[in-house]
Amino acid sequence: MAGVTLGMLPRLDSVFRSKAEKKVRELGYDPARLPPGQYLTEKWPVLHAGDVPRYPADLGTWTFRVFGDVDNPVELSWEQFEDLPRASNVQDIHCVTRWSRFDAQFEGVHWNELEKLVQPRPTARFAIAHSEAGFTSNVPLSYLGDPNALLATHADGEPLTPDHGYPLRLVIPGKYFWKSAKLLRGIELSAVDKPGFWERYGYHNDADPWQEQRYGF
Asked: What angle do CA 69, 74, 79 make, to 5 degrees?
């Protein structure tokens, strides 16, 4: 590479961004919707640690708990959970492994409906999602109040598949998608933060894709 200095070489991240934005434009979207370091996919890649449990269709033994720093802990059967008022929204999702998916549709129950039942104490500041196999994910409790946050049972008009968290997953808007815990079985409210599964492996506690908060070290 005689005659070429390092300063003349295009930065790899600039090349990546240029290609990523080109695809976004070709698909008719505004590149401003794509966080830094991400690329757009029309698929929904599956990422999962460990085995994916398979539930029977009737979910007769499935339960969901809300507990911890609340006045009225609850444990709901699937039928009781399904009886709660429902909500839906459309939002962009972003994975720490660099893919983004625009206009994902989710349907489920908003936290506000559960909040009415459990009556969080004034000291409750954090929510810890508890999933199968001991997986946890943590967010400030205020994140659950976001209008686009959901305890989702459906995606893109269909029930969640097992690989994407059937029968229930948390959806936390505006954060890397590991915060949206799959296979959800409970939410614990706490006065103190409790780093989740991926956070304990070095992932950033805040997980803001616009700040590229992928790792905490």
From this structure: 150
